[in-house]
Amino acid sequence: MATKTETQHTAGFIVSEANGNRSRKKVTLLAAETTGNLVAGTVIGEMSAPNAGTYGAYDNSNPAAVDGILVESVDASASDVEATIIVRDAEVNEDELTIGGDATSITAAGDELAALGIIYR
Q1: Is residue 8 one of the residues assigned to a domain?
Q2: Cβ(29)–Cβ(69) under 8 Å?
C-alpha cells in the first residue's frame, strides 16, 4: 500500500483569531529563489529596499522582519503572488509554523510575533 503524506492545510495552524478579517491582510509575495513554494504557517516578513512593499519568508538573519504568518500555501517561484497573512490578534499552533534561515524553532521569531499580538502555543 502506498504511503500518503498529508500536507499543511490552509489556516490549519490558527487556533483563534479576531472577528471578521481583522487579523488578516492581503500582501504580495516576491517571486525569488528565497521565496518559491511556501506552505501555510510560514512566518513572513516585509522585504527591504529595493523590494519594499513586498513580502517573503522570514529569515532569522534579519529578526526584525517578522510581519505575519502565511494563511495558505503558495507557489511564488515564477511570479509575484497575492496572499493572505495573519498580522495581528491571533493564537496559533507552534508545531505547525515554519521559519526560514537556520533556526531550529519558532522561538527565533517569537518576540516579534508577540509584538504583533500573535501568540503561539
Answers
A1: no
A2: no
Whether 5 maps to a domain, the answer reads no
Look up the pTM and report it: 0.85
Using CA atoms, how far apart are residues 45 and 42, in angstroms rounded to an integer? 10
Enclosing H/E stretch for 28: strand 24-29
Residue with cell 500573535: 118
Domain that holds residue 45: 14-120
Helix and strand totals (H; E) in the chain: 1, 10
Domain count, the chain: 1
Identify residue 106 by its one-letter amino acid code: I
26 found inside a domain: yes
Q: Which CATH number characterizes residue 45's domain?
A: 2.40.300.10
pLDDT per position as a tens digit, 62-120: 556 789 999 999 988 888 999 999 999 999 998 888 886 555 567 778 888 999 999 98
Helices (H), 1-121: 110-115
